[in-house]
Amino acid sequence: MTASSAHGPQRRVAVLADDLIWATRLAGHIRSAGAEPVAARDTATFVAALEGTSLAIVDLTARAYDGVAAIERATASGARVLAVGQHDDRELRQRALAAGAERVFAYRKLFEDGPRTLEAWLAGSPAGEGATR
Hints:
Blueprint: H1 3-6, E1 12-16, H2 20-32, E2 36-40, H3 43-50, E3 55-59, H4 67-76, E4 80-85, H5 90-99, E5 103-106, H6 107-122
Parallel strand pairs: 1-2, 1-3, 3-4, 4-5
């Protein structure tokens, strides 16, 4: 059974990350979780990507865009949003949550357990954790 047929039509996830390594890693995790990533490295491309999906992931540690503003934009469009960032930047994590992110995962969490974590989120688990297969 393919990922697409396991969950109905393949879901698309807008991914905003200007770091090539994390953009590639997040896209790979999303594919492993059974969805199609739509990569963006700047705000304009991200806004365009949001038109085709109701799911988004934002890398908060960026130079090319404001991650919190991107979360606000995505949630205003009706998207469910996850964020990823530094584990020790409590202030930025709080701002991302206040802007509408469902969760802010540390890079380490998605590095170590990205596909399972994102698969649980895609399945609708409110915390994106705890789901088993």
